[in-house]
Write the structure tokens for this entry.
Amino acid sequence: MTEVAIEAMQNAYAPYSRFQVGAALLTENGEILPGCNVENASYGLTLCAERTAVAAAVSQGHKKFIGVVVVTNTSPPSSPCGVCRQVLHEFAPDLPVRLVNPAGETLTVSLADLLPMSFDKTELSKGQKQSPGAE
Ligand code: THU
């Protein structure tokens, strides 16, 4: 998995930040889906590596994930941004997240610890009453 994530990191399109990120998602049936960050001249449109991996996986029919590796050229290895935590949470709230750098430093943390008091689909049915703006 780490090798797949490192290879993906080398494919990152990051001409603006020069900060390359690779990801590899492991599915319950053993498939590994890579992702890398894809930046844009309109900076806010940038896609993070974790989210491109999720998009690749879902578009190939995978929605059950049992692990993710994120590779960055930082020491200690960097943790996923808040948006990516939320996107991963949609599919695997307790996902083990392994943070790695090419030098071999590794740290594993649960997504549940990275995203406490999270928002998920169960919230959508807990509404008490409609607010005027929802009409
Ligand atoms: N980036 C990721 O790919 N994943 C993260 O979780 C954090 C940030 C990317 C986005 C951008 O291309 C670069 O890192 C610098 O923010």
User: Anything to note?
Assistant: The beta strands are 21-27, 32-36, 65-72, 96-100, 106-110.
